User: Fold this.
Amino acid sequence: MDRYYSHEDRQLVAVDCVIFGFDDQELKLLLIKRNMEPAKGLWSLPGGFPKKDEGLDQAAERVLSQLTGLKNVYLEQLYAYGDVDRDPGERVVSVAYCSLIKIADYDKDLVKENNAHWRPVIDLPDLVFDHLVMVEKAMRRLRRRARTQPIGFELLPGKFTMPQLQSLYEAIYQKELDKRNFCKKMLSMRMLDKLDEKDKSTSKKGAFLYRFNPEKYEQLLAEGFYFTVDVKTKK
Assistant:
């Protein structure tokens, strides 16, 4: 078979995964300690190289599955990074993906086995290559989406309190939000079902539990509704 592109310069293609999770208190990022050179032993996003029979999406899904045990997780392509000297080991173009998962759903033993760790996004260690640039871009996209789409509910349990929901948005925006305004805004959008149950784990009085109703949300969209969360800080 003719090598049509044999005269072109050689370069590798990799995938890196920016995986955010929430544990009811903090927004966290999944990181690994590299077990290979270059930068062996340093913190890195989970990533790797596609197999010869894999597309980029399949490679990213495999990397996430191998590290966490999670399958069929929605991964969104973020950006391609191709600075000539971004990886000291080789000329590598990396396609970054991002995802949101519930930390409670991942395989703890598998993550530990792969030397992976959840680290708070507000206290990240130094990352190899341009991985911090990837994380910062993913955070900007997450904040834009959280303002106009109900993506945050993917990080919460099926039943949640209003304080839990506010904690999530505060973690995403890294701001303390006005409690009264936030609660009023969320309830005004009519896409939450208030349950006849309370979470009493933090107080005797307890806090009512809510559930996101995707059917109501789709109905509201059909009626011309626009989801929006005002980021008003606490006075």
Notes: The longest strand covers residues 12-22.
